[in-house]
Amino acid sequence: MGEAVGSVRYTPRERTLYRRKLQENLETFDTYLQKADFESKGTIGLELELNLIDADGAPSLRNVEIMDAVDDADVQSEIGAYNVELNMPVSRVRDAGLKRLEHGIDERLRKLRTAAQSLDVAPVSIGTLPTVTTELLEDESWITPENRYRALSTAVVEARGEYVGIDLSREDHYAHEFADLAPESTCTSMQLHLQVAPNRFADAWNASQAIAGVQIAMAANSPLFLGHRLWHESRIPIFAQSIDTRTPELVHQGVRPRVWFGERWITSVFDLFEENVQYFPPLLPETREASGRPILTENGTPYLHELNLHNGTVWRWNRPIYSPGKRSAHVRLENRILPAGPTPVDMAADAAFYYGLIAYLVRENRPVWSRMTFTEAQENFENGARDGIGARLTWPRYGTLDVTELVLETLAPQARAGLEELEVDEDVIDEYIGIYEARARTGRNGAWWQRKALDALAGRSPVGSDERNRALRTLTLRYAENQRSGDPVHTWEVPAQG
C-alpha cells in the first residue's frame, strides 16, 4: 500500500478495465522472467512502523504534524493517525552491515524523537500499543487523511458487505465489530527485505515460511490488545481479521483470506503472483493511465503498475515484490512477520537471525521444507503467535519441542554459520546471535515483559477498570523508557508490584 491512489471508490467500468490490464501484466511478467537479466546483489532493507504517544502514554493522533516537523523522506505516514513508518536505505549484510543497520534505526528514532518532543509526543516501537481503546478506533479521527487509506478501508468493508469483526481469546476475551479498518492500525511491524535472484526466490520463500513460527515466537511483542490479555503476538490474528473481506459463508466455502500464510511450497516466484491474480479480486482498481505511470522505465524495464498495486493488497506474511529498479529490475522477499521493537539492538538481532538462517537453509542438500509439511509450518506459525517464547513447535528429526530448545540447539548455530558464509564480521555475529540466544535462555522477550509488567502493576484487575487502565499507561511509559535505554529486552527489569 505504498502507492498513492486518486479515488476512494471505483466504477464497474474501471474494475473491468483494471482486471484486463492485470492479466496482461501477469503475462508480461511471465515473459520477462524467462528472458530478462535481473539485478541480484543480495541487498537488504528494513521498514519500521511506529506508534506515537502523548505524555500520559495514550495514542497521539498527530502523525501529519510529526512528519512536517521532522521533514525527512524516510519518515512516511501509516494508516493510523498515531502511526508513522521509518524506511532504512538499502544496504548489505556482509562485514558490519548489520551493525550499520542497528545504528541507522537508532539514529532515525533519535531524530524522530527530537522532532516529536516539541509537540509533547514520543515515538514507540511496539507490536501493539497497549493504551489504544475501542472508543478511539470508533472515532473517525483514527485514520490518516490520505486517499489510499480511506480507499483501502472502503474497499475492504464494501467487499465484505458487513462490519469488520474482531474476536480473540486467551486469558481475556475481546469481541467487537467495527465500521471500518480501524483495528488494522494497531498492528505495527518490522519488515525485512532481501533481494533474491528469480531462480533462487522459491528456496528463500520456502525457507522463510518454514521458520515463520520460530521468528514470531521469539520476537512476540503484542500481548495486549485494547487492554485485553490475548495471544503473545495478537497482531497476527488481529491483522488477519481486520482485512478479511470474506463473510462467514465464504469462509466455510474455503475462500482464501487476503492476509494469507499460503497453502503450499512453491517452485517459482511466479507462483505467488499468479495465485494473487487468480484467487483475489482487485481492491483498488486504479489503472496505470489513471495513476500517470509510464509503461516502461527509462531503461526499458516494465513498471507492471496494475500487478504491483494488486500485489500490495494481498498481505502474505512473506510477500514477493517486483521492482522495475533504476538500472534493472529485481525481485525481493518482504518478510512481514516480525512485530516492531523493542530496541534497535533487539531488531538487529532478529534481522541477523533471519538473514543468517535463510542463508544456511537455502544451501542445505535436503532443505527443511522437503522434510516438513506446509501444514506443519502453518501450525508452527499459529502456535508461535499464540504462545510466544513458551511455544512448542514441530521440526524435522526432533518432533515437537520447545522453541527455545530448537533455537539454542539447532537454529542459532545454523544462523551463525549462515552469517559466516555471508562474510559478516565475527564480533557482529557474536553480539547479535548472542542476544538471540540469551533471549532463548532466559525465556524473556517483549511479550513476556509486557505481560509480567501488567501483572505487577494491576494484578488480575478486570478489563476496563481504573486500576488496569492506569497500569496500561504506566506500562507503556516504562516500556518507552526502557526502549530509550537501548538495552536488549531480555535484560529489562519488571516493575515492582503495585
Task: Give a short overview.
This protein has 498 residues and is α+β, with helices and mostly antiparallel strands.
Helices and strands, with pairings:
Blueprint lengths: L11 H24 L8 E10 L9 H8 L4 E3 L5 E9 L5 H21 L4 E3 L9 H4 L9 H14 L3 E6 L3 E6 L10 E8 L1 H13 L1 H8 L4 E2 L2 E2 L5 H8 L5 H5 L6 E2 L8 H11 L8 H4 L13 H7 L3 E2 L1 E6 L6 E10 L4 H18 L12 H14 L4 E4 L3 E4 H19 L4 H17 L3 H13 L7 H20 L13
Parallel strand pairs: 10-11
Antiparallel strand pairs: 1-3, 1-4, 1-7, 2-3, 5-6, 7-13, 8-9, 12-13, 14-15
Helix pairs in contact: 1-10, 1-12, 3-13, 7-14, 13-15, 13-16, 15-16, 17-18
Structure description:
- Helix 15 (403-421) runs antiparallel to helix 16 (426-442).
- The protein is α+β, with helices and mostly antiparallel strands and 498 residues long.
- The protein has helices at residues 12-35, 63-70, 97-117, 134-137, 147-160, 198-210, 212-219, 235-242, 248-252, 269-279, 288-291, 305-311, 344-361, 374-387, 403-421, 426-442, 446-458, 466-485, and strands spanning 44-53, 75-77, 83-91, 122-124, 164-169, 173-178, 189-196, 224-225, 228-229, 259-260, 315-316, 318-323, 330-339, 392-395, 399-402.
What characteristics describe this protein?
single chain, 498 residues, alpha+beta, 7-stranded antiparallel beta sheet, two-stranded antiparallel sheet, 18 helices, 46% helix, globular
Category by helix and strand content: alpha+beta
- Provide the β-strand percentage band: 15-25%
Task: Please give the alpha-carbon distance between the first and last residues.
Answer: 43 Å
Number of strands: 15
Overall mean pLDDT? 95
User: Helicity, in percent?
Assistant: 40-55%
Spatial shape: globular
* Main beta-sheet annotation: 7 strands, antiparallel
Radius of gyration: 22 Å
Contiguous helical run count: 18
Unreliable residue runs = none
